Amino acid sequence: MTSKATTVNEYLSNLPEDRTIPVEKLRQQLLTNMPKGIEETISYGMLGYVVPHKVYPSGYHCNPKLPLPFMSLASQKNFIAVYSMVLYAKKEVMDWFVTEYAKRCKYKLDMGKSCIRFKKMDDIPFELIGELAAKVSTESWIEIYENAFKK
Q: Per residue in 33-64, pLDDT tens?
């Protein structure tokens, strides 16, 4: 469910009532723990956390006019999703996250390559998502990203 919002405030104001508090709590964790240099924006119809062109002028290889994605947060039709490019790109972070999730949550992890889906609003590990956001610095993310293309 892609939002047509063009600003963060518009995105937040259009959330379904039952999603407002969980999305706001996740957003606060992300904003509090995001590495220096990452900016919040609307990206792909979601709340996007990106490395802006002023930090990484090359931009995203798929479309260099876009900033380099880092994380995203979205209210989808049947769940809230957190997308972490670091989970996809760095196995050590993925292994850490899966282990920590199992320790902290009662429901099974519902996850794709970079997408963590939360269908049960009462079992969102807000602090763990904040820790995930802080796991890699902006500089390290750029290095991981660039090294992926050298292989």
A: 999 999 999 999 999 999 999 999 999 999 99
> Distance of CA 35 to CAs 10, 27, 77, 90, 134, Å?
24, 14, 29, 16, 6
Fold for the domain defined by 8-134: Aspartate Aminotransferase, domain 1 (3.90.1150)
> Which DSSP string do the residues of 14-72 spell out, in sequence order?
TS-HHHHHHHHHHHHHHHHHPPTT-EEEEETTEEEEEE-TTT-TT-BTTBTTSPEEEEE
Segment 63-122, tens digit of pLDDT: 999 999 999 999 999 999 999 999 999 999 999 999 999 999 999 999 998 999 999 988
CA–CA separation, 13 and 57 (whole Å): 31
- Strands 68-75 and 39-43 turn out to be unpaired
